[in-house]
Write a structure and sequence with these properties.
The structure holds two protein chains of two kinds.
Chain A (H helix, E strand, L loop, with lengths): L3 H7 L14 E3 L6 H10 L4 H16 L22 E3 L13 H9 L13 E7 L2 E5 L2 H6 L3 E4 H7 L1 H7 L10 H9 L4 E5 L8 E7 L10 E6 L4 E9 L6 E4 L2 E6 L4 E8 L11 E12 L5 E8 L4 E4 L2 E4 L5 E10 L4 E4 L2 E4 L5 E10 L4 E10 L7 E10 L5 E10 L5 E10 L2 H9 L4 H12 L1 H4 L4 H15 L5
Parallel strand pairs in A: 3-7, 6-8, 7-9, 8-11, 9-12, 10-13, 11-13, 12-14, 13-15, 13-16, 14-17, 15-18, 16-19, 17-20, 18-21, 19-21, 20-22, 21-23, 22-24
Antiparallel strand pairs in A: 1-2, 3-4, 5-6
Helix pairs in contact in A: 1-12, 2-3, 3-8, 6-7, 9-10, 10-12
Chain B lengths: L1 H8 L8 H11 L16 H9 L21 E4 L7 E3 L3 E5 L2 H14 L6 H9 L5 E8 L5 E7 L4 E10 L4 E10 L4 E10 L4 E9 L5 E10 L4 E9 L3 E10 L5 E10 L4 E10 L5 E10 L4 E10 L7 E10 L5 E10 L5 E9 L3 H9 L4 H17 L5 H4 L2 H8 L1
Parallel strand pairs in B: 1-5, 4-6, 5-7, 6-8, 7-9, 8-10, 9-11, 10-12, 11-13, 12-14, 13-15, 14-16, 15-17, 16-18, 17-19
Antiparallel strand pairs in B: 2-3, 3-4
Helix pairs in contact in B: 2-5, 6-7, 7-9
The chains are: A alpha/beta, B alpha/beta.
């Protein structure tokens, strides 16, 4: 018989990114109204069209109701009690990394994010976002040689307003949902990527999001445009300090892939999840959507979700172009009192479109882990195919695993297949591994990693190793 | 919607039974189901209002039973007609439930009702008069097959209720046939209580004529070691909803469900199932098939709920769908809600059309396309039809279906 307590002990690793950086920050007053939005826009010296975009979104948001269909039990959020703009104070204009506050560099160093020159060898370009603003973007010049634009969205607004005006809000309209509308009204920073025609991005691009203040929300916006026959792999990571209050994170990510373009978007989400009693933690309400506009375009989402008190996230693909491909690979791990309601939407609009969904949920402690996904075949999606697989693993008898797939077809000449299963760590397998001299904890993490292998195989190499370690750490103390 | 108006104003209460009054009262605050709720979201609102358009008819006209009685021993009952029954034989007994037993049981059920989930039952029980409620207590074994008919007359709404208690160790085959006439609405609610060690092979065949509507609700409570096998078939309804709720009250029970719905023209037929395991060692094997042609819409939503107490549950659910036309649509949503960790639960769903390779193969053997499609459809139907008791040899449902498709 497996020792329940032993398993529980395996998931109890303390959150190691929970430190706070003591840095002088510039914050605006709490609350949300038109003046605040105008102030944010003014601080960022934005053009008129963007301010109008924000104000329009705010008007829509005021008329909307916070959704409750996911039945996530959380305390009502007081939107007037949040600071919508917070930035570390630094010199007006930074020309090189040497001018960035060393405390900030130190913070990202501690998080293992290579911003300083000597660590740039890893060949990953990083855009580091600290609270509401982007601190630094590395490898800019090298990328510019290839015509790739990789910068913070505020810079893109200044330097490439035409691209922003053309694409912002075209994938996730500001009226899409409550949190997308809120983000459209108050978004402060985020990353912008533009890959020109025919270019394969020479290195992986990466954004690192760090929340530092306890009372400010983070509302970043990411926009990635891949022109014809281009390709890019983008990585996203996030951490936050430990506070006993809940912090709101409502991001919007928009991807656009034109003919033959491909975008791979990988996330390792490790926001602070709250303590064992469920106090504190990030509310992660994110809208991520990709539009496969061009023929044979491809968007692939892969995510490892281990943090946040509540995760509410459905990275989706709109498959418009003929023969376009959407993929979704996800591992969601919940422990203690975490709740995750995550999944994807694959909307097949164009003919011969294909989508694959592989979702692995692991629930431990008293947590709740749900897969919620939609697969829709429109009337013109002739010859389209979808395959979905959702597996859940339960650790302990207090955790819950739910599966809610919504499947809709209006096209007879298309095929949809969905399968889901639930299992737990098998005692026989554990016994076998232990009898071969493998430590109990290692055996558990081997099995969890085996369970998630289909997804880890899709992650970029650096991420796969990190994800594996992360799961092992998170599970430490919970299997038994 | 005359009925809804009546419910709102709570008219003609005098001759109503206590149950009718309770249900009317429950409905009064919100007489219609919430169209935004998950259970009613996809339901066609105008079709639902057509259902409610007809005025309530407590007495039906005569109707033709679709097939002759197979043997003398088959017990045939028609809800609303021959409600007097008392059969006490050596091996078995079938009796009417006493008024008290019936009232007590229904009242107990109503206390668990939720507005949206049980709206069809609330409507049924508030419209169903004393004559249209049939309560039976079945005991013993080697019971001859039982057939129970419900039917709706043209241009009216008929509400029929059936309550069946299967006593301990009882074993029975029961076929329920719901028939809809042209322009009619039938509200049928069935309550099954399976006591320990009892087992039933239950068949539900519902079909209508032009523009008939059906709200068919089935509530089953299974006690320990009981076995409930359901084979169901719904076709030819302008609008039909089949709502199944099964509770394994202490686990350790077996449930097998095989259901099918066929939609053509602009019909909408939906099946909603909710299976709850309230004890350990429960077993479920469920398959639901849909076939949608022309401009029709077929819906399946199935949820399996496994709370902490239901360890070692083994449940599987499969939704297989055939979409045969460009204008038809299919929605399917199999759901799992699991808290217990030592369980085996899985579900699957597919939507496709007839297998082209198989059709091609048959055609290379000289079989025409129409014949080949019929062959494929018949194998698709056969799995479900062979699971429906009694009918399998005597009443050729397969031919009926194939001729209509």
């Amino acid at each position: 018989m497996v020792n329940e307590n032993l398993v529980k002990d395996v998931v109890k690793e303390p959150y190691k990114y929970g430190f706070v950086t003591d840095i002088e920050t510039e914050k605006i007053e709490k609350g949300l109204n038109e003046d605040i939005i105008k102030l944010i826009s003014q601080k960022k010296e934005e053009p008129k069209f963007l301010l109008n975009f924000r104000l329009k979104a705010f008007k829509k948001w005021q008329k909307m109701k916070e959704p409750d269909w996911a039945a996530l039990g959380y305390k009502k959020i007081d939107y007037q009690d949040i600071i919508y703009y917070s930035a570390p104070k630094q010199k007006e204009k930074i020309s090189s990394l040497d001018e960035v506050d060393p405390k900030l560099l130190e913070t990202f160093d501690k998080l293992g994010i290579p911003l300083t020159e000597q660590k740039k060898l890893t060949n990953v370009a990083v855009d580091a976002v600290f609270d509401s603003v982007s601190i630094a973007t590395t490898f800019r010049e090298e990328l510019a040689e290839h015509g790739v634009i990789f910068c913070s969205i505020s810079e893109a607004v200044k330097n490439h307003p035409d691209l922003i005006e053309k694409y912002l809000g075209t994938v996730v309209p500001s009226s899409d949902n409550y949190f997308a509308a809120l983000n459209s009204a108050v978004f402060s920073d985020g990353s912008f990527v533009y890959i020109p025609k025919g270019v394969t991005c020479p290195m992986d691009l990466s954004s690192y999001f760090r929340i530092n203040s306890g009372d400010s929300g983070q509302f970043e916006r990411t926009l990635i445009i891949a022109e014809e026959s281009s390709s890019v792999s983008y990585l996203e990571g996030c951490t936050a300090p430990m506070f006993d209050t809940n912090t709101l994170h409502a991001a919007v990510v928009e991807l656009i892939a034109l003919d033959d373009a491909s975008i791979k978007y990988s996330t390792v989400q490790n926001w602070y999840a709250g303590d064992e009693e469920g106090i504190g933690g990030i509310f992660n309400f994110v809208t991520k959507r990709g539009k496969c506009l061009g023929k044979r375009s491809k968007i692939s989402w892969s995510q490892v979700e281990t943090g946040s008190a509540i995760t509410w996230k459905y990275p989706s693909c709109l498959l418009l172009g003929e023969e376009s491909i959407g993929e979704f690979y996800s591992v969601a791990l919940t422990n203690n009192l975490q709740q995750a309601d995550t999944g994807t939407k694959m909307i097949h609009i164009g003919p011969k479109t294909k989508s694959t969904i592989v979702s692995k949920g692991i629930s431990a402690g008293n947590s709740k882990n749900s897969y919620r996904g939609l697969v829709k075949m429109g009337t013109k999606a002739k010859g389209s195919r979808n395959y979905s697989q959702c597996d859940s693993m339960l650790i302990g008898d207090q955790a819950s695993a739910n599966t809610f797939p919504y499947i809709k077809s209006q096209q007879p000449n298309s095929e949809i297949e969905h399968e889901a299963s639930t299992c737990r760590i098998s005692e026989d397998q554990l016994f076998y591994l232990q009898s071969r001299g493998i430590e109990f904890e290692e055996a558990v993490s081997m099995m969890v990693s085996g369970f998630c292998r289909d997804v880890f195989n899709q992650l970029p190499m650096e991420f796969a190793a990190e994800a594996d370690k992360l799961l092992a750490l998170k599970l430490e103390g919970s299997v038994g | 919607m005359e009925i809804i108006e009546k419910i709102k104003t709570n008219k003609s209460v005098d001759n109503f039974t206590e149950i009718q009054k309770i249900c009317l009262h429950k409905l009064q605050s919100s007489p219609l189901p919430n169209p935004k709720s998950e259970l009613w979201r996809l339901s066609n609102k105008s079709k639902l209002s057509t259902f409610l358009e007809y005025s309530v008819n407590e007495k039906d006209s005569k109707f033709d039973i679709p097939y002759p009685k197979n043997s003398q021993s088959t017990i045939r009952l028609i809800i609303g007609e021959n409600c007097q029954i008392k059969l006490i034989e050596k091996n078995y007994s079938i009796e009417k439930l006493s008024e008290d037993e019936l009232q007590k049981y229904i009242k107990e059920q109503i206390s668990f009702f939720k507005q949206n989930e049980n709206w069809s039952d609330l409507l049924n029980l508030s419209l169903s008069c004393k004559n249209n409620i049939l309560g039976l207590k079945i005991n013993g074994s080697k019971i001859p097959p039982i057939e129970i008919f419900s039917h709706a007359s043209s241009n009216s709404l008929n509400a029929k209720t059936l309550v069946i208690f299967l006593e301990k160790n009882c074993d029975v085959e029961l076929l329920q046939v719901n028939l809809g006439k042209e322009n009619s609405s039938l509200s049928q609610s069935t309550f099954f209580c399976l006591k320990e060690n009892s087992s039933v092979n239950h068949g539900v065949v519902s079909y209508g004529e032009n523009r008939s509507n059906l709200l068919n609700s089935l509530n089953v409570i299974q006690q320990k070691n009981s076995a409930y096998n359901l084979g169901s078939l719904h076709f030819k309804f302008n609008y039909a909803r089949f709502e199944i709720s099964i509770k394994q009250s202490a686990g350790n029970a077996k449930t097998n469900i095989k259901g099918m719905q066929i939609t053509k023209k602009d019909e909408q037929i939906s099946t909603y199932t909710k299976i709850e395991f309230n004890g350990p060692n429960g077993f479920l094997d469920q398959i639901n098939k849909s076939l949608a042609d022309d401009k029709s819409h077929a819906i399946f939503e199935g949820s399996i709920i496994v709370p902490k107490i239901a360890q070692r549950t083994d449940a599987s659910q499969l939704s297989r769908n055939l979409l045969l036309s460009n204008l038809a649509q299919i929605d399917t949503k199999p759901q799992l809600e699991i808290i217990a960790d030592d369980v085996k639960c899985k579900h699957g769903a597919t939507i496709s059309q007839l297998n082209e390779e198989e059709l091609f193969y048959m055609r290379t053997r000289g079989i025409t396309l129409t014949e080949a499609s019929k062959l494929q459809l018949s194998s698709y139907f056969q799995e479900i039809i062979s699971f429906i008791p009694i009918s399998k040899d005597k009443w050729d449902l397969l031919d009926k279906l194939l001729n209509e498709n």
